[in-house]
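fyi for ur records
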Amino acid sequence: MTTSLINADGAVMGRLASLVAQRLLKGEEITIINAEKAIITGNKDFILGKFEDRRRRRNPRKGPHQPRMPDRLLRRSVRGMLPYQTPHGRVAYKNLKVFISVPTGVDVSRAETYPARIGTDKFMQLGELAKLLGARF
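which gave:
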């Protein structure tokens, strides 16, 4: 099994998640660093409203529980692109690790990057969204 290190700095979250999901299904182990620096394109008010609406449509005690931390938000978006209800999808999802910033002992120079190629200046970093949702990191 091959292990890959991906730097999410400046990468569009959805595009990164789809590429990671494809590679996980092929059997790779993937570690994503700098999750809080991934971006979501669009109007900031719309993005925040969408995520706040997801959090409001639930019972706080029973769920479904929505993540607030940037690493969990990115991990959840990858899960949405995997066949998570099948055994193959669950094994693939277990091979994913996502970190906020860079953990100690990780060589950043060998990390792959997926820079954003967006034609707009309307975007929001995942860390900024997480803080607006109430995350403390």
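The longest strand covers residues 3-7. thats all i got for now
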